[in-house]
């Protein structure tokens, strides 16, 4: 089997696989009654993938032809009747006969490099027409009939759904305190919950051991905004203006904020190595 014939069969397999991949994705997405912008993005990526594969195949095919011309010799096997795929490939590209090459030559010449006045392959023009049809469909779906949301609208819908889910989960919570009546919890499970959140989020500024980094040391008796459970809870809930301490009220329910505040106070007196020096006013709890 010749190199060209082997190559052509391989390119055929790759092309069919790419088209099957695009068709499978398009079929799966078409099962939804309303197209989303994500669906259109998948279809677009599929088209780009197919175009890229076809361009790569054409480039490889041209290189193989140049290889043949350089050798200037053909084996007997290469002179046999071309395969069905070779005929189909030639039809898709509408190749001009070599005998007409002189008629296609342009009149300019750069260092011996000449240019042929070849037309674009039919498959390339076909894909270009497909993109035009696709753009019209996209315009109608998203901007004329508005049957699917745009990115901004999808974002708002996602936020609304998340808030509704959060409200539904918090509806079953029993909250019998507020920021002024909150008390320290000593329940191991609740302290572990507070520790988990602290190590995931608060350790960025305060270190995992609470010794302080960009934020102050939380293991001594000196506090910038008060050291009682209500003070710590308010800082977690409302944040601190003009600092990196943000408000967590919109992301944590009251129980989780109480758990985090209780865990912070449990760090008192641990004296971790490398802790920052005292910062703020001394706070002594009332007995």
Total individual domains: 2
The arrangement of helices and strands along the chain is: HHHHEEHHHEHHE
Contiguous runs where pLDDT drops below 50 for at least 5 residues: 1-8, 21-34
Strand content: under 5%
Largest sheet entry: 2 strands, antiparallel
Q: Strands across the major sheet, in which order?
A: 1-2
The rough form would be described as elongated
What is the rounded Rg?
35 Å
Enumerate how many helices there are, as a single number: 9
Q: Write down the overall mean pLDDT.
A: 82
Total beta-strand segments: 4
- SS-derived structural category: mainly alpha
Share of helical residues: 55-70%
What is the CA-CA span between the terminal residues? 94 Å
Describe the protein's topology.
Elements: H1 3-30, H2 37-71, H3 84-93, H4 101-104, E1 105-110, E2 113-116, H5 122-144, H6 151-170, H7 188-206, E3 222-223, H8 229-238, H9 254-266, E4 281-282
Antiparallel strand pairs: 1-2, 3-4
InterPro entries: CcoP_N, CcoP_N_sf, Cyt_c-like_dom, Cyt_c-like_dom_sf, Cytochrome_c_Oxidase_Subunit
Protein name: Cytochrome c domain-containing protein
Domain Cytochrome c: 189-268
